[in-house]
Amino acid sequence: MMSTQFARFIHLTTTRVMMGASKSNLAKLRKKTGYPFGNCKKALEVNNNDLEKAEKWLEDQAKSLGWSKAMKMESRNTPQGLVGIAWDKQYAAMVEVNCETDFVSKNDRFQKLVDIVAKTCLHHSKTDNPSPKSISKVIIGGEEMGKLLAADQQSLSDHVVKNIAMVGERLVLRRAALVSAQPSLQLSALTHPVTGASAGNTSLLGKYGAVLIYSSPSRDERTAALAKQLCQHVIGMNPTKIEPSPDDPAPVPVKPVVRERA
To answer: According to the UniProt entry, where is the signal peptide (predicted)?
Structure first.
């Protein structure tokens, strides 16, 4: 009798320890991946509570489901989205990522995706043009963007499909502008309205964006603030030029008017 009770005690204690470990790993997996608790629980169950294997299982499942959903959603419009700008010294990358609804554009997961896309394109710009000798602007489309590898060595296309599986909307890499300039010039950038700061993103996110390349003998805070103001004007006014065109007619000289008193 006593041996039976002891065996039951050992079994109960072991079960409780395993449940505790599962709950701990479940919380860790949920925090790290952002996937729903049900998915994380399933991942741990099929991988014997192994965190690393469970995370890989989740990634594989998300990719598979994401690609399947992406194919079914190909005909759906994506009128919403965000512009993201990542910049560093003489390089900048402005990207556009689209979604179906404004609701998803405000989602932390979608904003993190735009952040990853912008930083990946910036890294590509630096690698592709390590020593710029002049101003350069290269436009790349969504297909080429999708082939670029992010910091985790996954393609941007894979990042997109994983997010499709999570948010349930069609997401599209639209285009990117890769800008670089020689070291003698300076860059400034701005987005409006400022979005995604709370998610811990390092890129600038918003509905509109501007990148400014300028020359100035000064590199102080006052000059940087003026450059930001110019970016604001670019976003607000959408100018096509910043100086008179050679085709503009010369101003008509005005003769002074002299008034005499009788």
So the answer is: none
